[in-house]
């Protein structure tokens, strides 16, 4: 098994060869064909999240170095443990649902494994997909991607379900629209495509990058806005009225402030991004505006299957994908950190 693994936080990844794991019990061994590079990989590589005011959330505990990043995984089933043979076919093309839990707690048993308090997330707490092989602990984590290009399927397990889960969180607050997509990176562009494909209200978008705003218009956004412009709020209200739902796919102080500032009364801001920072709002504004601010973290395995069905049916246009060899993982991370990526970079072991 070949991999690009992290030997020290903040330092370049290193190439390594190590024994290919053998599946035991209910485990499934997947030969990886594609692995997306996600912004969360940068946080894991740094070892922290930015909490604002110079404060950092240390996420280094519970992870043994060297460690393999990557959670947007697609490939083929290469081998299975004895308890999985009746449930999975060797040679099947698949995506791997990476947000694994203990499998025993109330959240796991109710289908919300991604919210388990004892997570076993691929590329986050256990070795992930910057490699030629990965182990999934159970066949329930293996998603059928028949009819879907593998370079797209892996990213659907993170950027895809993050966008899909955030949209579903906002649905109860959606009036006659519009809905605002804030941030047009890989996840935001996926959210835009999903909103256009599944909602009947106007879909508008905001991003600081002119090129990304143009791509959103070409994809079908009704209006686009530069959130840093002095007249950004006025431009939104004049062009389309106050959105009833704004989804922040950046998760920064500036993006969340913009999102809440243009949201209508009794509306909601859904925060799905993890860029970092700090947010405050005078307490009376919550009841006076009846404003809801919701967090959204990826989505359940059932949501993942729903999304795959939508994509398989041709209802969602794919975001741009840029393929790179696995050994270019470091340059992929650097480009993502510098904001030079439109869509998704996908590594090919």
Architecture overview:
The protein is α/β, with parallel strands linked by helices. The protein folds into 2 domains: 2-149 and 318-348, Medium-chain alcohol dehydrogenases, catalytic domain (Quinone Oxidoreductase, Chain A, domain 1); 161-295, NAD(P)-binding Rossmann-like Domain (Rossmann fold). It has helices at residues 39-46, 106-109, 150-170, 186-198, 210-219, 232-240, 253-261, 285-289, 301-312, 329-337, and strands at residues 2-5, 14-17, 28-36, 48-52, 55-58, 72-80, 93-96, 133-136, 142-144, 179-182, 203-206, 223-225, 245-248, 268-271, 292-295, 321-325, 344-348. The strands form 4 sheets. Strands 3, 6, 7, 8, 9, 16 and 17 form a 7-stranded mixed beta sheet that branches. A 6-stranded parallel beta sheet has the order 12-11-10-13-14-15, with helices on both faces. Strand 4 and strand 5 (55-58) form a beta hairpin. Helix 3 packs across helix 9 (301-312).
